[in-house]
Amino acid sequence: KNEVEQSPQNLTAQEGEFITINCSYSVGISALHWLQQHPGGGIVSLFMLSSGKKKHGRLIATINIQEKHSSLHITASHPRDSAVYICAVRNRQGAQKLVFGQGTRLTINP
Amino acid sequence: NAGVTQTPKFRVLKTGQSMTLLCAQDMNHEYMYWYRQDPGMGLRLIHYSVGEGTTAKGEVPDGYNVSRLKKQNFLLGLESAAPSQTSVYFCASSYSDRGTEAFFGQGTRLTVV
């Protein structure tokens, strides 16, 4: 079993819909990252969080440390949000390393 | 502000050839990492460095070597490329290992034929 599991693996929605991507992890962590990767493009960091909730524009990230679970929400989704969203955790034990989920491929249709 | 820059962006190698991928960062970060990304798998750590002159093995180090002679540069070498090394390679850097954001390069798409 992977240390970081994301769901769903693929998600297709219509423009304007509220999107939720989930990330569960099995290890103690010092931080959790949400990353975005556009097709053929580089990886951009969206959020880094260790507790609570963060918001940036239409994106919201939450984390529940006790349940070892995080969610990424997108409000009023737009076709330009189409990308792969990756969850990564920094293991409290091996803190130099990020452990990545397999990613969620999001497609927003106009 | 360039951030993290990888060169080259694309490369095709024949089996047995060698090459070096360069990662440069201008943020004075101590930590630098090389990852590979393969279909259906998350990014996997190849090697990393916690400072100038230091390197360490990651999850999948076989077939690769690295060097960090200058703080701003982290080189990934393939001495004898194999088709199994066909992948997209990402470099990343961060100021420290705890609670700091990681910055990624644009990736290098390598094909070994």
Q: Please mark out the parts of chain B with pLDDT under 50 across 5 or more consecutive residues, or reply none.
A: none
Mind telling me the C-alpha Rg of chain B?
13 Å
Number of helices of chain B: 0
Largest interface: A-B, 25 and 27 residues
Straight-line N-to-C gap of chain B: 36 Å
Oligomeric form: heterodimer
Instruction: Please provide the count of β strands of chain A.
Output: 11
How many strands in all of chain B? 11
**Residues in helices of chain B, as a percent range:** under 10%
What's the helix and strand layout?
The complex is a heterodimer of chains A (110) and B (113).
Chain A: E1 4-7, E2 10-14, E3 19-25, E4 29-37, E5 43-49, E6 52-56, E7 59-64, E8 69-74, E9 83-91, E10 98-100, E11 104-109
Chain B: E1 4-7, E2 10-13, E3 19-25, E4 31-37, E5 44-49, E6 56-57, E7 65-67, E8 73-78, E9 87-94, E10 103-104, E11 108-112
Parallel strand pairs in B: 2-11
Antiparallel strand pairs in B: 1-3, 3-8, 4-5, 4-9, 5-6, 7-8, 9-10, 9-11
What does this 3D model show about the protein?
The complex is a heterodimer of chains A (110) and B (113). By secondary structure, chain A is mainly β. Chain A starts with a strand and ends with a strand. In chain A, strands 2, 4, 5, 9, 10 and 11 form a 6-stranded mixed sheet that branches. In chain A, a hairpin with a 6-residue loop joins strand 9 and strand 10. In chain A, 33% of the residues are buried. Chain B is an all-beta fold and 113 residues long. In chain B, strands 2, 4, 5, 6, 9, 10 and 11 form a 7-stranded mixed sheet that branches. Chain B has a 4-stranded antiparallel sheet with strand order 1-3-8-7, with no helix packed on it. In chain B, a hairpin with a 5-residue loop joins strand 7 and strand 8. The radius of gyration of chain B is 13 Å and the shape is globular. The chains are: A mainly beta (110), B mainly beta (113). Chains A and B meet through strand 4, strand 5, strand 9 and strand 10 of A and strand 4, strand 5 and strand 10 of B.
